[in-house]
Amino acid sequence: MEKLEILLNKAGNKVVLIPEIIFMNKQNIDWKGVEAYLERYVGKLVEITESKDIVYIGKTFPDEYAGSKYTRKAKGARAKAKANAAQGILEMIEIATEKGFRENLKEKHKKNAEKGWYYYTTRFALPIYENETKTNECNEYSACLVVNCISNGKMYLYDLIDIKKEASNPLKTSK
Question: Can you spell out the DSSP letters for 112-166?
């Protein structure tokens, strides 16, 4: 597998370039496969460059990512984008920007988000294929990283939501 790169888009924002599409199907994403893929990151921690926040990948993250309400509603290209974004989740945390905060209002998250929720903007790009051949263009996406903060102040990655394909001009790569 090719190495992940972080590129700058035309606006000067960092974008994680996902080198391959490993979850091909748009209609029936193998979310159990995505969850199994994400298991490799459990226990890791990443510093967000902009805010210096430390974000942990906890044992509940793979299940939430693959089985959240947002994931269940995602269809077609958006579902495929989320599934494949899993490959660059650590780098997407690292480049996250635009930190926002909301208090936790749901009883079910009383323990895992006692000190609230943080939201960050992140970006990734997926290669464009023509007739099963990878081109040197990528579709760019923006998304929101959801991070919960527990009682001791530790921050845990919870989900990736609000995935939006950016303008119709594909990102060019050197490959």
Answer: TTTT-EEEEEEEEEEEEEETTEEEEEEEEEEEEEEEEE-TTS-EEEEEEEEEEE-
Contacts of 43 (CB under 8 A, 6+ apart): 57
Number of residues that this document lists for the chain: 175
Paired with 14 in beta bridges are 8
Count of domains for the chain:
1
User: Does the predicted model carry a pTM greater than 0.85?
Assistant: yes
**109: confidence class by pLDDT, cuts 50, 70, 90:** confident
Give Cα separations from 153 to 47, 100, 118, 161 (angstroms): 15, 16, 12, 23
Quote the distance between the C-alpha of residue 89 and its chain's center: 5
Give me the domain span that covers residue 92: 5-172
